[in-house]
Amino acid sequence: MGQPVRPLSVSVDIAAPPEAVWRVVADVRRTGEWSPECRKVVARGQVGLGSRFVGVNRRGVVVWPTNAKVVRFEPNRVLAYRIAENGSTWTYALEPITGGTRLTETRTAEAGLSRFASIFTGALLGGNDGHSDELEAGMTQSLATIKKVVEAGPAAPGDARPGHAGTW
C-alpha cells in the first residue's frame, strides 16, 4: 500500500446536452487547452477502452511525462484513465440534469501513491497535501474552461483557437 492521498472531486453544470460535453471531454488530446498542469496529451488513433496515451505535465520548471490507460469508457457518461506512475485514476462523469449536464472530475488513488510518486511529489511538487490542493484548484479551473468551450458551441471551420481543429 502506498502513501494515502485524499480523493478529489469537483463538479460544474453546463448548459449543453451530455453529447456536446462528451465530444470535448473524450478528446483527451485537448486536455492541454484547459488543464493548468497537463500541458499536452499524445494519443494514437481513436481513444476508447484500453487505449493508452502520454500526458506531458508541467509545474514551474519541472516537466514530467505520465502514461495513462483508459479503464472506463462509456460514451456520453464516463471516461476514466489510470496513471501508471502514481496509481491515480482520473474520471470525468457526465450526468444529465435539467437544462444540461453536470460534469464531475475526480482523482482517486485507492492504493495510495507509489513510493516513487510520493518521493517525486515531496521533492519537486511541495508534498502530497500541497499538490492535492493545487490539483483541486486546477480541476475547478479546468471544468470552468470546459464549460466555456462547450457552451460556446461547435467552432466554425478554420477557427483559430489554439489546439482547435475547427470542428468537434
From TrEMBL:
Signal peptide (residue range): none
Top-level division of the source organism's lineage: Bacteria
Cited CDD domains: SRPBCC (cd07812)
Transmembrane annotation, as ranges: none
Pfam families to which the protein is assigned, alphabetical: Polyketide_cyc2 (PF10604)
Protein name: SRPBCC family protein
